[in-house]
Amino acid sequence: ISADGFIVTNNHVIEHSDNVEVTTDDGKTYKAKIVGADPRTDIALLKVDGRNDFPFVKLSDTAPRVGDWVLAVGNPFGLGGTVTAGIVSARGRDIGAGPYDDFIQIDAAVNRGNSGGPSFDVHGNVIGVNTAIFSPSGGSVGIGFAISAETIRNVVNQLKESGTVVRGWIGVQIQPVTPDIADSLGLKQARGALVAEVQPNSPASKTGLQSGDVIVTVNGQQVADARDLSRKIGSMHPGTKVDLGVLRKGAEQTMSLTLGELPSQREASRSGRFERGERGAPRQDEPRLGLSLAPADQVAGTSGGGVVITGVDPSGPAADLGLRTGDIILEVGGKEVSDPADVRNALNTARSEGKRTVLMRLKSGEGTRFVAVPIARG
User: Fold this and answer.
1) Which residues are designated catalytic?
2) Which of 35-39, 288-292, 324-328 has the lowest mean pLDDT?
3) Which residue in 170, 196, 215, 231 sits closest to 40, CA to CA?
4) Which of 81, 192, 193, 211 could form a disulfide with 229 if both were Cys (CB 3.0 to 4.6 A apart)?
């Protein structure tokens, strides 16, 4: 990307490497040093010394349109420099690779070995870096993904300056607002990011954000979903003051906070696990959900409050929602629970209020999340 030898590739291409070498098209090999890498966007920046006249390419200043032609360059299966052609199939793809997914989808043939190669527009500008494929067979099926030039530019500038990428952080675990969750919260639209858990001593906790809040705007800009919130906050620098539009119990309010710095490694809360049918664990059948429950303080391997799921009927509604043995129910309908009777009473209360679903807050090995549980009608 520059005449003095800066090179962009994927983090997964050079990850865990002790030594990196770059071979150019004329067959010469150069030793390269890793300037920095950003696993969250899968971008790495390398530097080759000894020359100031390397041929280089330019990152595009404009976003591609769906339908634009694209040329993908790479080294598929180790064959050497290879060019394939196609079009931009979609933009803004979230493939579950990370919290800042914003991939360009292309249908030019991309295979193993294309990672880190550029995708060009017809003017010779780089619109993205080839990163991933969707492939049931392991080969190209015409669905490839490239990191956008805009993301590359932002990350590379920070890696050049400090070798790391610094992002804003508010300190909440979030999840999407599904239609069922929106119905449980009394929202007219399934939009925004639902706060599942607030981390202690974070900007969010100091500002008063709570589990169950829905963040719908950042500095007046609408938040489409949880991923959109992550991207908006992550694009800002620590120390930036932001105004969050928050829905709490149906009423919108504005909360101001100063962003912290995203930790280099996030610690997910972990709960003790145990096997189904552990001896001594009291069981309380909940036939409407297909659950067996027990107070957390009576089940070995768990700590804190809540109600532990000790069994899940595979044919029941709870299994369809992804509830698992060992998950801990913390709240039902916004009320904390400590024994199976609390769960049953909360469900009955929601049913008597005419609600179709009730929001259940769970803690599992993956952290804390909300699940909208449909209420069976008797």
Assistant:
1) 12, 42, 115
2) 288-292
3) 231
4) 193
